[in-house]
User: Which sequence fits this backbone?
C-alpha cells in the first residue's frame, strides 16, 4: 500500500496537527507513506528531520491566507496545490490522506477524483469552527467530508461534531486520539 499524506503542518514546525500527522506516519511501515507538506521555515531543521523520518517528505509552498476558492487568487492557490499533490503522488498509490479538511482536503478530493483513488481526511476539530463562519468554507468542508471514504476524528468530541453538525455517518468515522510517546518524556 502506498499513501500520500498531505499536511500543511508537519515537523519541524511545532504544533499539534503536524505532530499528529508525523506520529501517525511513524506508526506505519517504512516507505508505505509519502508526505507532501509546506516548505520549511528553517530549511536546515527540516532537512535534519526529513533525514531521520522513515518516509519520503516533499516540501512545497502550501500556506494559504484564506481557505476559500472564490476569486482568482483562491483558485490559483488551489490549482498550485492540486498540481503539487498530483506530482507528489507515489507510483502505484492506493489512497490519499489529508491532515485537514481545508485546504489539504479540498486538493486531495480533486486529485483523488481525477485519479479514481479513495481518500480519507483527518479532522482535528478547530477547522470545523472556522468552516462554520462562512457559507463557502462550510460548503467546501462538507463536500470534502461527505466524499471521503473515511474520516479520522482526533477525539470523541470531534466525532460527535462530525455526526451531529456535519451529517457524517458514524460508520465512516474512525477515532484516533493523539497519544504520548512515554519514551520521549
Assistant:
Amino acid at each position: 500500500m502506498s499513501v500520500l499524506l498531505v499536511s500543511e503542518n508537519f515537523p519541524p514546525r511545532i504544533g499539534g496537527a503536524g505532530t499528529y500527522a508525523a506520529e501517525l506516519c511513524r506508526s506505519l511501515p517504512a516507505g508505505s507513506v509519502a508526505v507532501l507538506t509546506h516548505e520549511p521555515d528553517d530549511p536546515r531543521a527540516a532537512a535534519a528531520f526529513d533525514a531521520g523520518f522513515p518516509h519520503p517528505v516533499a516540501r512545497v509552498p502550501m500556506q494559504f491566507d484564506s481557505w476559500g476558492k472564490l476569486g482568482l487568487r483562491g483558485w490559483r492557490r488551489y490549482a498550485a496545490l492540486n498540481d503539487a499533490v498530483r506530482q507528489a503522488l507515489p507510483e502505484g498509490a492506493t489512497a490519499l490522506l489529508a491532515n485537514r479538511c481545508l485546504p489539504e482536503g479540498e486538493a486531495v478530493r480533486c486529485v483523488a477524483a481525477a485519479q479514481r483513488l479513495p481518500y480519507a481526511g483527518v479532522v482535528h476539530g478547530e477547522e470545523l469552527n472556522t468552516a462554520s463562519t462562512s457559507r463557502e468554507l462550510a460548503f467546501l468542508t462538507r463536500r470534502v467530508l461527505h466524499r471521503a471514504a473515511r474520516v479520522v476524528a482526533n477525539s470523541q468530541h470531534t466525532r460527535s461534531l462530525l455526526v451531529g453538525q456535519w451529517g457524517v455517518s458514524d460508520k465512516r468515522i474512525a477515532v484516533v486520539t493523539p497519544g504520548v510517546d512515554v519514551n520521549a518524556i
User: Anything to note?
Assistant: The mean pLDDT is 91. Helices lie at 16-26, 43-52, 72-88, 101-115, 126-131, 135-147, 156-164.
